Amino acid sequence: MPVLPRFPSVGGAAGYKYQSGCVGGVTYSMDAGGGLSLKWSDPADILLGDKAISEWKGTIVVCKEGSAPKSVDDGTIICDSTVRDQYKETGLAVGVGGPGYYYGVFPYTKDYVVNVDGANTVYVLSEGYDAALENASWSDIAYIAAQGKAAEIWRVGDEKEIQLSGIYNGAIHAQIAGFEHDDLAGGGKAGISFVSREIVTYAPHKPKANWLGSNIKTDIFPGIEGSLPATLQRSIKKICKDRRADCKSLKPSIMRVEEYLFCLSTDEAGLGTGYVVAEGGGYPLFTQGNDSRIKKDMNGNGSDGWWTCTMEGRGDTGALYWYFVGADGRRLSGSSTSDRGVVFGFCI
User: Fold this and answer.
1) In the predicted model, is pLDDT for residue 5 greater than 50?
2) How far is the C-alpha of 165 from the C-alpha of 264, rounded, in Å?
3) Could you tell me which of 92, 64, 68 has the C-alpha nearest to residue 80?
4) Where are the domains of the chain?
5) Which of 43, 73, 148, 279 shows its CA 20 to 30 Å from the CA of 256?
6) Cβ neighbours of residue 73 under 8 Å, at least 6 residues apart?
């Protein structure tokens, strides 16, 4: 097959070449025996007056598990068709991948400019994705969340078991805390926000300048993330959170933090801010009453509380304390040298 270098997607000057349009109607179907086929229509040539500035040459199909391919080299090439609309009606029989896989259907021009727009990709859902959340794969959940359809299928409070394996071991449950709630680092909203139902471990919340220096963020969270199933790790989205940069006054400054795993603020846990500056809005999960609060660890043992990422300053001394959620669901603060529960959230 030809080597297909990637060029700028706009052109007309300095030797740049125009890419083709996107493929049309890329869909998939499965027969009674589980055979998968893809259908699409190839793009028409692009004309400027009577001159073709983008002439379709062929279409390459790339298969990848877990995430959408971003280039012809990002996955397994399963087809390179140079017959226009060859698979528009009959479909391409696919023998690679299947449910849980993405397919990029990338057209290229006679100048070998490849169109890798996300509109050229399709994801094959697994069976059972629209049943209970517990039965859905993380790849399915991520795809449905990206389409903005999650709230039509699942509800706040729905749970899915996660088996931790690594530094931390055992079963916990991720519960849906809200939909379209958190800001994605790349823009837009994350489809689903999850919060662990159980406490993963116990630790002190060492007083640092702010959340960025907390031992929970720098030491514990990387261990939890590495203990998550690989398919879940690939599905977690980087988000932005508002967190307090200091607590030297009654109006602490706020910093924007990018995170994969996050610690709840008191505001997000539905317990108010403790100050006049908020750290994100409350999740719908925590407006359902005290029954929705995290009360036990992975072993089923009760707890006297779990840490939040909200700091409390004591007067003008600069001393920092951390708020925690008590066993009765109240917002409390106390010695950061005490071992308390650590819970986490993530977004898909």
Assistant:
1) no
2) 23
3) 92
4) 24-123, 152-347
5) 148
6) none
